[in-house]
Amino acid sequence: MSDQDKRGDSNGVSMKTAEIFVAAVFVIFGLAVAIDSYRLGAQWGTDGPQSGYFPFYIGVMIVAASLVTLVQAVFGKTQGGGLFVEWQALKPVLAVLIPAAFYVLAVQLIGIYIGSAVYIAGFMVWLGNYTWPKAAAISGAVIVSLYLMFEIWFQVPLFKGSYDLLQLIGL
Question: Does residue 10 surpass a pLDDT of 70?
Answer without folding.
Answer: no
